Structures are given as C-alpha cells and as structure tokens.
C-alpha cells in the first residue's frame, strides 16, 4: 500500500493515544463526537487519521477538523469534520467515523486498511487537513492528538488555532475553490464581511428607531474574542460592546442558555430598557437577540424571527431588482407555529420542515434559488445558487437595468458577501440582522411586532432507553412505542392551538418534549402531560413529571 506505513498508525495509537478497553462505544452524532474532554484523546487521534483519508479521497482537497463542544459545559469537548465544500461530513462517512473510533487499538491498523480499500483511496495522493479549536482549556492538548493522526498518515496540515466553527468552514471552502469565495485567512474573512457591511451601512450609522449600539454576550467563548477583532475593523460602524469574554464557557450565558431558559444571561452591564442585546454560543455558530422592556419583561427574538426578517429583506431586494427567484424558508418542528403561519400567510413564501440538525436544513435549502434556513435555537444561514448570483450580477451590469434595479442588485451582492453560506455563523448573521434593522429603521420592538409567538415549552425526560422512541415526518410523528402518537393527539386536542411532539435527543441521553398552545398556563400543562406519558411509556428514570397545581 504505497509509501504510507500503517504500522505507524498502530504504534502512535498504542504509545500515545491509546483507547481504554473499558470505554463503551460512542457515535458520530448530530454534530460529531461530543463527551467529557478526558475521554476524547483517542477519538481526536482517529479523527486526524480519518480527515487525512477523506482528504486523499478528494485528491488533496482540504478537510476541516473543528475541536469544540459548542454550547455544552466547559468539561465537555468534541470534534466535527468539515467536507470540501464547507459542508458537514457526509452521512456515509459518519458511519465510517463511528466504526473507526470504536475499534480497539489492536484492530486500528486493519480498520484503516479496510477504509482505504473500500473507498479506493490512493495513498500516494496529497492530503490537507485544516485544524481549529475553541477556547476550552483542553482543546490545545486534543488538537495535538488530531495532528498526530495526520502525521501518522503523512498528511499536511494547517493549524488555525482558536477560531469559531463557521470560520473554519469558511477557510476550508475558500481554499478548495481557490479563493473564489474569499481569502482563506482570518484577516480575509473579517475583511470580506466588514467591507460589505460598511458599504451597505453608508455614512449614517443610525436610522429611525435603529440606534448604533448593542450588547454582545460572547458566552465566554471564541465568539467574544473574534468580535473584538471585528470591532477593530468596524471602527465604530457598529458600536458593539463585548461582554462575557473571559469566564467559564457557556456558564449562565450564551445563546443556548438564553433560548432554553427564556431569560437574559448573567454578566451584562446594567443598561437602559429596550437595549438591543445579542447572545452567541460557545463556538459562535448560533445567535439570538433579546431585550428587556420598560416593565422589566424579557423578550426573545430567536432563529424563527431571524429567518423571517432576512427573508422579507431579501424578497424586497429581489423584487426591486425585477428578477424572478424562488425563495424558500426551511425550519424544523421546533419552529414556533406563529412563525410558520406568518411565513405562509403574510410573507407568502414557501416553507419546508426538516428533521433537527443543521445539515438536514442545509440540504433542503439548496433546492431553492435562495434558501433561508434557521433552527429556532438560532443556528442558520442563507444559501444562493450560482444561477441566482449570475442573474443578480447581470442585472447590476446590464445597460437595460434602471438605477433602482442596479441599486437593489448592488445591495443584494453586498448582502451575499456578509453571509457565510457554508454554515450558520453567529457574527455574520448578526451583521446581516443589524444591516436589515438599520435599513428598516427598526428597534427590537418593531421587529417583535411582526407576529406574536405562541407560548411554548421544552422539557427533557430521562428514560431507561431513549431509542424506544422512533419518529417520522421530520420528527413530528412518533411511530414507536405503538399507540404513543394517538395519546399525544388526544392530549393536544384539549388545548387551543395545541401542538406537541417528542423525539430522542441526538446529543444527550434524554427524550425531548416540545409543546405549544395559545395560553401560557395551558402550555405548562400540555408539556407536563406529554412528559408524564413519555415517562410512563418508557420506564422513566428519577422523578415522575407532575402537572402544575392550578390545573388539577
Ligand atoms: C446539535 C446540532 C443542532 C441541533 C442540536 C439538537 C449542528 C451543528 N448542531 O447541536 O443543529 O439543533 O444538535 O440537539 O448540527 P438534540 O438532538 O439534543 O435536541
Ligand atoms: Mg454551536
């Protein structure tokens, strides 16, 4: 098998990154491998091997390895692989990754040989692996293990050090398309986004109710460091005050905390009522907005809101350009029912629903000329196909276009430059939202007034085996255990505008329950009733959920 000696793979594994024989199997989940940091060294080493093989299978296109546990607590870490076009690892290779991680050290060499054979990999081909990590203190050690995996298979690597997950996606893609998307460096990335942002903003940084000031909750993660770097380039075009930049990652702060608890993070300075605030997660691929009004009430503007705001802005520009394009919004079952109604009835836009997990949304979104996809948790972006980009450029450069059409197409091209099309990107999404609010002259109250969210709740139920639950129809219908869906339907029917579903989590050992209804008290009861059902149908562990007192 050519110049690469696979004995090294085994020797490195045994001497440096050995797998404890007692460790149980783990799975490449919704967003890669994720668990306690001290159980991950052998996983990282093997992902270094796998990324090298994957790169060779593409004749040397760069493959990314991102070391992060995203919004999880500080003690966790994880790893996600990035495919050549900046997308998440293809499904068939997720299974290969799972198998590679679960073999013993002694079987590792044979498993690598098997992959090379089955995938017909030319071991003389070039291999390039791009490595990045978040701010967790154990990330540098784990990155060494990834690098040793690359070295064992004689690949080349580039360390990007501490970067956001979406930055690494951008670097991989920009490199592989030979700079056509942007310069694959941190400076190149910041420059691309900031240049477009400043041009769209013009010289007036304020407009109507839009004020040039916001608080940025960086989740004590990499997002806060990078936002400081953005600030240096923005030079006041956006007055963004970076908070939560050096405490425990995701601890009582960040987008996941804010969305799940429906309350503000700790660590923000006292600010006047209605101050615009934004929270990102630990690796800065999710973003949500929020504010506290003059009565002290907390208001959240989540991924559903961001999707509708972006879609309405892009539709307006497309129509001003005078071109016909098929724009669609992609959501998951977690999208608030009110947002789906608003998209269908007010925006008159196509809306699709896919299973949870960004890759599912991304794949659906690329079916549209312009696909806007967001999970309610704030993870999402916009994708444009090549014909769309060509059509917009043609409008800009055509002598037949009016000045208004040229202006709109110019704005669209700049908006596309702000967007990181490879994956959800908190900072890029935020710059786009700021651009839109600025152009509309809106504060967060104006944005909130577009529609009223239905009260909703998410709960977790611990059961003996979460895999007894099986779902279909984008996770909205439970097909196992038998009879479960009929009982959910009966409970949901009792409540005005009731909707609920259950699904096993892809990242935690729990079953998730989602409920919404017209009334906030009703939603608590519906969620509790469904949680009780889950508990009873599947041997719940710990305390049985109870129905709130007032409804008994
Ligand atoms: C991961 C996914 C996120 C999804 C979440 C669901 C990526 C990059 N991240 O964080 O999209 O919403 O898992 O978690 O795909 P759950 O299965 O535990 O509910
Ligand atoms: Mg994340």
UniProtKB/TrEMBL annotation:
Q: Which InterPro entries match?
A: A-D-PHexomutase_a/b/a-I, A-D-PHexomutase_a/b/a-I/II/III, A-D-PHexomutase_C, A-D-PHexomutase_C_sf, A-D-PHexomutase_CS, AMG1_II, AMG1_III, PAGM
Query: Has UniProt tagged this entry with the keyword Magnesium?
Result: yes
Give the residues the record marks as binding substrate: 375-377, 503-507, 512
Q: In which pathway does it act?
A: Nucleotide-sugar biosynthesis; UDP-N-acetyl-alpha-D-glucosamine biosynthesis; N-acetyl-alpha-D-glucosamine 1-phosphate from alpha-D-glucosamine 6-phosphate (route I): step 2/2
Cite the Alpha-D-phosphohexomutase alpha/beta/alpha domain residue spans from the record.
Answer: 61-96, 119-179
Enzyme's top EC category: isomerase
A Gene Ontology biological process in which this protein takes part is: UDP-N-acetylglucosamine biosynthetic process
What residues form the catalytic site here? Answer: 70
What name has this protein been given in UniProt?
Answer: Phosphoacetylglucosamine mutase
- Originating species: Clunio marinus
